[in-house]
Write a structure and sequence with these properties.
This protein is mainly α. It has one domain (2-430): Sodium:dicarboxylate symporter (Proton glutamate symport protein), CATH 1.10.3860.10. Helices cover 70% and strands 1% of the residues. It has helices at 2-6, 9-26, 28-31, 35-62, 67-99, 118-124, 130-136, 142-147, 151-168, 173-194, 197-219, 221-245, 250-256, 258-267, 274-283, 288-301, 304-320, 327-340, 350-362, 374-402, 408-415, and strands spanning 439-441, 444-446. It has a two-stranded antiparallel sheet. A hairpin with a 2-residue loop joins β1 and β2. α4 crosses α11 (197-219), α11 packs across α20 and α17 runs antiparallel to α18. It is globular and about 70 Å long. The N and C termini lie far apart (53 Å).
Amino acid sequence: MVHKLLGKLYVQVLLGVSAGIALGVWAPDIGSDLKPLGDVFIKLIKMVFAPIIFATVVLGIARMENMKELGRVGVRALVYFEVLSTFALALGLVVVNLVQPGQGMNVDPAHLDTKAIATYTHAAEKPHTFVDFLMNLVPSSIVDALARNDILQILVFATLFGIALSHIGARARPVVDFLDSFTHGIFTVVGMIMRLAPIAAFGAMAFTVGKYGLGSVVSLGKLMGTMYITCFLFVVIVLGGVAKLSGFSLWKFLKYIRDELFTVLGTSSSESVVPQLMRKLENAGVSKPVVGLVVPSGLTFNPDGQCIYYTMAAIFVAQATNTPLTMTDQLVVLGVLLLTSKGSAGVTGSGFITLAATLASMGKIPVAGMVLLLGVDRFMSEARAITNTIGNAVGTLAIARWVGAVDRQQLADALDGKLDGEAGTDTATEAAPDSTRPARVGGAVVTNASLTH
């Protein structure tokens, strides 16, 4: 029984997290030197990240019989993303006003050393307009986009290429067959990489605790606790409501993707499980085109945990520095974040950069106050990453149900653990998804043979 339990990936990751925290507390000097263990795992995942997104999107679109469905899925996904991210921003704003974690700190911004955040504030000084965002959608070359793991640019090219393959019909078969085999090979590589997840979790947590210490958690524990509680409420109430409306159990779904959630907990990165999450959703009956389009784009347009953090962090800085804000000021913060929180994927330190840009654009909340967040930001990243992952997964399934692109019986079987190699098993040992399974999009069945427009 114990041997079987230890064979589960999520148990191994949880043990790695626990051991990392213990080492960080007892031997912080050693723990702070173990950062490369987590970093190399993230690099390995990013190594296969772009190829998987590219191949999955191209294959999904190339096999679609009706190109109108592509636009329908895209439009509904964007609507869903905007509504949910707005809910997340608003929830963070409401809770931080109710709890007021920064009240009583009485920090003078003039006495803060801003050298530690100089990199982020300098990057925020560069104007990021909507036109810049649109221009950045088009890659200078596909090689450049793949090399930089630029999600949106890869999506743009992959979508165009997939549409082209769909239009040329039977002549596209050799390319589609090659991409199909290529995808299976890449997923096998992902399975190999996932065996390192417990080691990565150990190194990442040892570094975090050893570098920043549990003392920083105590000093700003009210902010941390508020952040975790808010993310919990968002998942249970908002995402739970979405799941109920979409006809599936949130608890069963979380149990189904528990390996991925524990990996995110250990690595503090939602990107670390994107390939596995896409595979799990396909195996649960969601069509490949929907998975290929919604999961990658959700990283940029639907970062629910990040949105909660933005409003909470902005108002916390105002409270801690005794900066008075009217309701209008707070609504301005919300409105600015609705725009600045989008399209920052692939930018190093994008969370701090976005927050710095938002505070600077208002001119009322001192940007220097962001120094207060450095000590606990890493500890709050787990809550952000897990909420992002759950939000993206639930959103993909909800959108798939919305457009009729999910096999309901297969989904029910997967969540009930009736499918071999699925719920409750180690994702590192699962087989690659069966790309020969028909995909249902908008009620239409799409098979491997469906290469004609």
